[in-house]
Design a protein that fits this description.
Jelly Rolls; five-stranded mixed sheet; globular; disordered N terminus; 2 domains; 3 helices
Length: about 400
Amino acid sequence: MKRIFVIVLSILSFVSCIDESYYGESNLCNITSFEMEGQLSCEITTKNGRGYIYVSMPEDVDKSNLRIIRAVISPLSKFDRDISSIRNFSNNVTVKVIAEDGKTFKNWDIIIVNTGTDSQIPYSDMKKWTIALDENGNQISLSNNEYAYFPGEEGKYSPWQHAARANKINGFFSVTPQPSSENSEYALMETKAYPVGNLVNSGIVTGALFTGKFCFDSRHLPVVGSDPNPRKLIDFGIPFTHKPSAVRFDIRYTPGDVMKDGKGKTINENDPEGRPYKDSCDIYFLLQNRSLKSDTYYRVGTAWLRNGEVIGENGFVTITLPFVYGQPTQAEVQEKPYMNIGGIRGEVSFYKFSFNGTTYDKELMKEEFGDKDMEVDHIIGLFSSSAYGDMFWGAPGSRLEIKNVELIYE
């Protein structure tokens, strides 16, 4: 025992005497994550030792007045200048990333490509997935090295995301590619019980895949936050300018047996608050105009399905949801009350995210129905295994499987 103690002391003494540069300073000078305000997509690549960032922007964007809102680089490296002050991208802009060693550097060309929005949402067939990255460009994984995945390709912006960064706290992911990330055929969303969360009224975790961006913020998590609001974690929607007549997808859905609330208590048929005692999946695509007013999102088109019955008991079933443009008729709202602004209980709300240099300022937006002839500039798509997942209600075991999502134009 005495000998072991002496050996340990010797090791500690050796370590304490090692110079800070003993292991050498890093020569990495990469850009691992990049985002510009209003981008449609972004691709990061390297060729012959030079870095290239291709940023797709709407056709009418003013290249002379753009803004970089996030750029993550190799640890302890630095830019040669303050990139947040760059506004004019009329011509390609070159920035230099200098490695920790102060000698190695790489030039990165930022190239703006004007393009119209794609008439389809990329990666909607759910067959290609890549390891999910958080807002700092780090891979999202559990302690057992199980990785989260987003639909998409490495190095490219993914319009489809889910709450992987928050699910990491739970110790499981509620959205996964199936049957595997390498050979995916469909997306699986699951509702799961999280008993530890019962203590803070968040014992039900719902699987939801959506277009937009998940912005992790511990202040809005029920575990630690004073303002537990999942909607403040999601910047819903992506730029989009088309008007499809319908959305079509292949679906398989099985609701769980017992509906529970965030405290883990069963919601019964005679619930005194009138809460739903059966689970249902929620699927919607909303076409919006966000440019007319700074505080209002106008809903131009609505395609919505909320279903509590088994779909596709013997295999996937193809469903086509037509878009309703303008304000739904009274008959349409009576058939689907959740199509109204705010949903049945007002749980459907959207926030505007504005990057302030370190985090996002979030403003609750008004939502109104727009005229059917109004232009569209954003689309929100969502697939959720439990319709009231935002309220932490759902039936553990609910499974929603989706593939081959396609916008139809007729």
